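Sample pair:
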Amino acid sequence: MGVRGEGGGSQGWGRCWTIKGVQAIRLYLHQADAFAFQFASSNLMEVGLSFSKPFHRNFRGIKDGPNSGYSKWGYILDRDYANNPAHYVRAFLLIQADLIKIFEYVEPSNLAFKAYSFRIHELLMRSCIEVEANFKAILAENIYTPALDRFGKPILNMSVYKKIDKTHRLSSYKVILPVEGSGRIIKPFLPWKNGKSIGWYAAYNASKHDRHDEFKKANLRNLIDAVAGLLVLISSQFYDHDFSAGATGLSVDGYDYHDMSASIGSLFRIEFPDNWKKSELYDFDWSALKQQSNRFEKIDFNVI
């Protein structure tokens, strides 16, 4: 089906096709892109293919194959994978250590979840600020051009950070805190999957902007959930690596006392997403890929 040009003749038809036709093709390709891809790398990959290179600050499942056990995590220790990852992990470990100190005075249990104090409020602020810092780092080391506010400053908020759920599967992570004793499964980012806001982050915002009237929202449960959220965000980038100066140890499966997997810092247990589509998995042999100079890709968050 054609669209006839205003001139009526073949010349008009040609002008119409040159302008309107190209625009229509571009629009079609853009819509097809948005429909067919959950996200795009700097060089778009065909539908159905896995990713032959890892993305910066993005840990995900990998296809079974030769050397896939090592390739699952080997790239995380490459110095080009992330800018100063130890800086972010250390901040998390300090927050976790301070949470343990709070547990010396307030037992983490259902009966104490509503307890609040200046110390709990302070640690909730630090935890959520660190969550924001990790979100910004992920965007900065990939591709994203933020909109600007009326003062010319970039707009970066949870509406923007929600894009990262699609690439990192944050809403599919599960965490438990064994010392709670209740077996409560924490899903810090699950509300995003259901189109809702995140409760512990909303509590942070409320008690930050109006501490006097919203102080009670800075309670123990929201603090625990916020630290769990930070753990999920750290783990979605660095798996179980803490970048300490010690030797990298080998884990032995089948001898764990608690459910789920050990996590960075060893206070929480974590379950990683298992709902990756085949086309979303990594598919490479890191022992070979690490020899290449161009061994990482960038996620284009502008198209998400």
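Residues 1-36 form one domain.
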